[in-house]
Amino acid sequence: MKYRRLGRTELLVSEVGFGGAGIGHVWGRTTDEECVQAVRRALELGINLFDTSPMYGGGKSEENLGQGLKGRRHQAVIATKVRLQSENDRSSESAMAAAVQDSVNASLKRLGTDHVDLLQVHHQVGSERGSYMAAVGPPPRYALLLDAEECLALGEAMQRVVRDGKARFIGITAWDGDRQAIRTILDSGTFDTAQILYNLLNRSAVDAPPEGFDDIDQGNRFPWPAPAMWG
Question: How far, in Å, CA of 43 to CA of 37, rounded?
Fold first, then answer.
């Protein structure tokens, strides 16, 4: 397994990471035991980056990840996320800070750890505030769409968690985000990482997709070349 530095952090992570949606039973029928065994097998193969979210299976992904890492937490880099759940959560700085604290505390309990290595914004970022379909359903489920200003405010609330020792670094998930809003957020220096769909078969985050492309089109949304601070 090869390892590389993650974003602006000091974390060395495996080039192949472990996506946590499946161990939250999101992609199909599995058992908790199968999920736990998958985590343990990933560790055996040298994978140390585990990306999860409280939104994956209503917390089930974090629970299964915590079980799989029991006794081996020191071998893993845990990345989880936070999502504001209601308009009230975005109504003031204090409400946002309380929502972040509640979410992180619940995640830590499910994961069976006292800190996560990376805490990420689990929202799309647009040119203005609103909402978007986060899951097709049925029934369809919607999440809050943040603009750059609100995302940065959420980042400040997440920094409090870092100061409390409950997270080491913070990041954004930039999937389907507005290009200029993402640029503004990255240029601010608030976040240490940015996660987006980009691989050998799907380069649409930085290049126009070829004719007949049938994967998720990221719409050339990610700033490229990356800002200097990202190396």
Answer: 10
State both tokens at 179. 């290009």
Q: Provide the token pair at 109.
A: 């309990």
State which residues of the chain have pLDDT below 50.
228-231
CA distance 177 to 25: 26
Q: Residue 167: how many CA atoms within 13 Å on its side-chain side? A: 27
pLDDT at 166: 98
**CA 96, 55, 134 angle in degrees (round to 5)?**
90
pLDDT value at position 175? Answer: 84
| Closest listed residue to residue 172, CA positions, set 152, 144, 157 | 152
CA 24, 167, 121, 196 torsion-angle sign: negative
Active site residues: 56
Indicate the pTM of the whole model.
0.93
What residue type is assigned to position 61 of the chain?
A: S
Burial letters for 186-195: b for 16+ Cβ neighbours within 10 Å, e otherwise? Answer: beeebbbbbb
Rounded Cα distance, 124 and 144, in Å: 8
